[in-house]
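Inputs:
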Amino acid sequence: MEPCFDIAHLAHVEMYSDRFEESLDFFVNVYGLTLAGQDETSAYLRAWDDYEFHTLKLTRHHTTGIGHVAYRACSQAALERRVKAIEASGYEILGWVNGDMGHGHAFRFCHPFGHVFEVYFDTVKYDPPEHEKPALKNTAQRYHGRGCHPRRIDHLNLLASDVSEFRRFMETCLGSRVTEMIQLDNGRIGGGWFTVNNKTYDLACTEEHSGGYGRLHHVTYATDTREDILRAADIFLENGVHIETGPHKHAIQGTFFLYVWEPAGNRVELANSGARLILAPDWEPVVWTETERKKGQAWGLKTIETFHTHGTPPIVKKGE
Amino acid sequence: MEPCFDIAHLAHVEMYSDRFEESLDFFVNVYGLTLAGQDETSAYLRAWDDYEFHTLKLTRHHTTGIGHVAYRACSQAALERRVKAIEASGYEILGWVNGDMGHGHAFRFCHPFGHVFEVYFDTVKYDPPEHEKPALKNTAQRYHGRGCHPRRIDHLNLLASDVSEFRRFMETCLGSRVTEMIQLDNGRIGGGWFTVNNKTYDLACTEEHSGGYGRLHHVTYATDTREDILRAADIFLENGVHIETGPHKHAIQGTFFLYVWEPAGNRVELANSGARLILAPDWEPVVWTETERKKGQAWGLKTIETFHTHGTPPIVKKGE
Amino acid sequence: MEPCFDIAHLAHVEMYSDRFEESLDFFVNVYGLTLAGQDETSAYLRAWDDYEFHTLKLTRHHTTGIGHVAYRACSQAALERRVKAIEASGYEILGWVNGDMGHGHAFRFCHPFGHVFEVYFDTVKYDPPEHEKPALKNTAQRYHGRGCHPRRIDHLNLLASDVSEFRRFMETCLGSRVTEMIQLDNGRIGGGWFTVNNKTYDLACTEEHSGGYGRLHHVTYATDTREDILRAADIFLENGVHIETGPHKHAIQGTFFLYVWEPAGNRVELANSGARLILAPDWEPVVWTETERKKGQAWGLKTIETFHTHGTPPIVKKGE
Amino acid sequence: MEPCFDIAHLAHVEMYSDRFEESLDFFVNVYGLTLAGQDETSAYLRAWDDYEFHTLKLTRHHTTGIGHVAYRACSQAALERRVKAIEASGYEILGWVNGDMGHGHAFRFCHPFGHVFEVYFDTVKYDPPEHEKPALKNTAQRYHGRGCHPRRIDHLNLLASDVSEFRRFMETCLGSRVTEMIQLDNGRIGGGWFTVNNKTYDLACTEEHSGGYGRLHHVTYATDTREDILRAADIFLENGVHIETGPHKHAIQGTFFLYVWEPAGNRVELANSGARLILAPDWEPVVWTETERKKGQAWGLKTIETFHTHGTPPIVKKGE
């Protein structure tokens, strides 16, 4: 399948927190994002080199978990092509919504596993206030060096009970490609890694084992170096943040990673992919067997139990 | 201008050497590439995670400099669209050529500044022999750890007497976008950085000041980390390689760099861009003025004189 | 206790291998040491900036484990002072032995847990052959960049059934200081970290749980950076070396570590301490409780089971 | 000469600032030190793993430059031995002074080039307030991650018109050893690097070319990694700090370095020596010729002009 190219990139994620002030303090002072703006329900956060106004919309909510996932289209024409494809797909259509502080109107839709997606083109590029103006004009914002200070949003990981069906959704609605996947012995796909551009992945989906619905596994920002992640581990340690696993290197995608839980319990990651990109237009998905996965991560670290069970919100069954 | 997307990525560069054996030894044992194959005129070299058979074709020649630059199209259909656009462009057409050990037939064309380009789709993906098989199936080849061992080809820099005209060529023939450029006080463009995908650049063109024709400024491979480049500096030092400048950080593009001359005199670079990508489909070129350039590199290093004068071959005037 | 200062530093370790050729190949080509010399029983190995002829004497033997541990005295007079102190200590005296390729005559002695120690002053400073001459005259040898290439020997870890008694031995015979230790709930010392100079430790002793006698836990070389250790993990992976645990950061001493087993089964480590030194002449030992140790390593990694059981030789009881 | 061992380590430096508030803001918020205490004239600053109360005493003054240099003795007895040696040396004796917030009474003396030294044993170990308590009990203070956050004081560099005579002073009064030095073609010593312990140097002296008296060349703190220094370069850049030269690697001592000027003009450095230590008790000074120095720094960077001329205070002649 030739790449579709209508969708430019993962744009932002809306994350719910039932401990909003603590979560906001974490994301600004420990994780190292910048507060671009705030309204009555949400804080709009961004990494220092994200070009859009925000990449994380942190919303006050009665639960944790995910509000919606947004992708930006390549142009107005591309957006219209995508909307047609989505409308024709048979997936649930939520329709056009007005934008917020960070972008213009967006088209929302949903898949059977409960995650809301939106696509849009009209955006707000970040215009830094004086104290956030960068020394180098080719970065979006000042390199402030506060907390873990990742460079840009990287990807998110959603849980779904049927990854094969989730894949069909990603291909149909967003033109995403699978770059790597897990093929279980029982014939099911255990996980899939998707991309719409040269990044190795911007969204992963792994199988929901706990009967949850619409749950988030984690959201990830990218650092420039692996050393940033080692340094982050010390910062998390000093700030009493729960370090779940890492730093280590994933076998899948070869990403150097570190997973922690923000104060409300949402899992967030810092990751570095080095110079790895998916440049081949005819890239064949790398398929990992269950046996291969049992070797653990790249350098042998065993995947810890909570990684298979913890998602946010803790457990919300469909229809509850 | 909406991105064109027909061209997937910079594929390989043919470099000439008049000290072939020394150059080959340098690229394999010091720079750390792998020799994928060899025929009577050329060695086919690759970095450990390049997915194609080769990315550097080192050719025995009576001069140094560059043979040709190759881009891979996204599909057969995309290749055909591009060939039509090139044929309609008015630039010199050299026509179809048979491929070599690394790819199938390719369409060649040329611009007024003497560099030969080719586009192709049919390629040879690297199939590692037993001793080069990687431990992780998602890398193209074993991480051998020999020499500086960059991960993949990154970009090249060509010299041309008229960068504005060169830009028109890149946009017309390859659908390249300018991500950053230098605007001289005299109204001319001093340099332009081009990309066909999410990389910050895959080709740069800077103004030829020495009257040369068809000259190469440098070829660059990407490392996973900045530390790889610091380590490389020690390896170059121990091997008596001429270190021209660096390690330091470019103001333009923010790339961490190190420039050396291989034994025949061609300039080669190692570079790391961290997590920086051009994700915005409507990215506006960053324009640097002459005044801004006079501040030197990002952390203040002054550009050394040879960087403005040394190209390969040393000086070959058009028509000689 | 004021530091004694008679002993300058840990000098070398003799390691036994019952797979000598494989072990030697590992240490030269994967771990990245240099073969300084060889006689009928042993290979004399060194890291690139060790100033003495060798720091690892790898000896062909019917078992794995440790031959002897050597410390260098600060001067001939200091050596004589130490010998007197050792002779007066009541520990077993093995007496003077001739040196080998790497140093002159040495005084040997032993403690009740079966490890042979020696002290000496007369040494052979490494005089690199032409192809090992460094580019910078202040390093002992060329930075070859082969394999994991640690910079210098760092420390070793021995197993003993009574760490308190082992501590008395280290203080009495070598004037070592304890920098950190584990205080078990049962009143015993679970482990002690010793140094004779500004290094945080050059020898650690942890409790032998398996009834073994004279066993080695591991030998460690120091790298300049943590990145060297991340890179080493990939090299070990590609070479099929058993990675036991890491990379991670120790809570005790804060060292960044990676443990692997060389082909014969001896555990070897690569470690980086950053800029940490013990500069205080009146440093108070840091005492870790059992409860504190249960938190795992610095960033939460749990200590794996084999770390408590695997030593070399596998199990040799006293008197067998 | 056998090492003397009476002196444990460089303890602190008193730096003068005629822009005290700006300098203090720089050291706390950009350079990343912690303010341990303050009295009417001075701020007492420390790096996060310095074990003493302070290592930089920043004093409000009508000029820039250096107040005094302090070394800590190994014990009370060692201090008394040193005082006797100093009194017998013929150098100018300033006598005992009361300590300050950071240490007890100290013995002061001076050499002909105008720098005041002191030695003491009685110290104040840092007892962190609640918000500075570290997560790991073996570090002196919380790893706060603010600014460049070096780990500990490393060394300082003084200017003197006769380095040979300065060397005699360091050997006589402090028992320092020369680890490396520059031998000029005119027979003079151009610079010397001194240490009292296993560090490669804690004080350097280079020839004063400008007729100044008692001037400071720079003060340096050590980082755990080279990456910390690359990151610091970006932080300095964003904060408008004058980056004089670097990051690069010194040929002498092999230290990775970055030099900036704090707001009042005093030069400060960040440096990383990797795992390099001087362990040999009979280390022979490495002697660099003028020809060798002309090759520039390790990777070829030329020493910039201000490095030979800029000291603080700008120029104060003896007797003025």
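The two ends of chain A are 39 Å apart (CA to CA). Flag for discussion at group meeting.
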